[in-house]
């Protein structure tokens, strides 16, 4: 494996095949994962990059709505087809389909807008939380665990993550509440490409959001027979922020029923600007 950040940048550097039907066609690699399934955040970010390649400069993404249709395989490349649904005076709409072996694994629709002035308000960032430097990194917490997934999470993710109050990898400590917060940032400096930072933020937004559901029910990742899968993912970009600076991901779950759980998230810059909002429903099946 290459170093994690180089692997992320390579995955987001899609190839324009030159093929044209009524859609634009791109291809991208799959990052290695210990269980052989493509990370959902990777496909979300790649789908956004594919759509960005068809958008005029100065028009930026403000929303994405995607459905995960099938698990992707890490040993296969991914083909992305972009349908240029609409280009208006201020907004553009794109649909991206991600394929492996001719079958769709993700379908997403995205909207882009010229940057403009307008009304401005936001929900404030929670106050009184520990600073990221005061919290242990994942390597410190599970780097000693002799398991492929634990070692990958500890050493091969392109983002440093610091949990408040603590992660749910091996146990759920404290009160079983339906909320948590995570400080995160890329482990190195990214290029000064705002579209790349927006795509990388989509990538990171899929890491931990469903854990608010697991925390509420006292279910750690290590639970034997636990099955967790993202079903859909919605994201709204509000303000620009760099992902190689500390960001606070505030996560909560308002509901779980029928083997599904809903989780909501807000991503803030360290100085308190609300950068993005996220919603995801996931399948969570716990052995009886």
Topology record:
Layout: H1 4-12, E1 15-20, E2 24-28, H2 40-52, E3 59-68, E4 78-87, E5 91-100, E6 103-114, H3 138-142, H4 148-155, E7 159-164, E8 179-186, H5 194-205, H6 211-216, E9 227-237, E10 247-257, E11 260-269, E12 274-285
Antiparallel strand pairs: 1-2, 2-4, 3-6, 3-9, 4-5, 5-6, 7-8, 8-10, 9-12, 10-11, 11-12
Helix pairs in contact: 2-5
Structure description:
It is a single chain. This protein is of the alpha+beta class and 288 residues long. It has two domains: 1-115, Hotdog Thioesterase (Thiol Ester Dehydrase, Chain A); 135-288, Hotdog Thioesterase (Thiol Ester Dehydrase, Chain A), CATH 3.10.129.10. Helix content is 18%, strand content 39%. It contains six helices and twelve strands. The protein has a twelve-stranded antiparallel β-sheet with strand order 1-2-4-5-6-3-9-12-11-10-8-7. Helix 2 (40-52) runs antiparallel to helix 5 (194-205). The longest helix is centred in the N-terminal third of the chain and has 13 residues, at 40-52. 36% of the residues are buried. The model has no long low-confidence stretch (mean pLDDT 95).
Portion in beta strands: 35-45%
Query: What's the quaternary structure here?
Result: single chain
Strand-and-helix sequence, N→C? HEEHEEEEHHEEHHEEEE
Instruction: Kindly report the spatial arrangement of strands forming the biggest sheet.
Output: 1-2-4-5-6-3-9-12-11-10-8-7
Looking at CATH, the homologous superfamily of the largest domain is Hotdog Thioesterase
CATH class of the largest domain: Alpha Beta
The count of domains is 2
Low-confidence stretches: none
Mean pLDDT: 95
Report the principal-axis shape.
Answer: globular
How many DSSP helices? 6
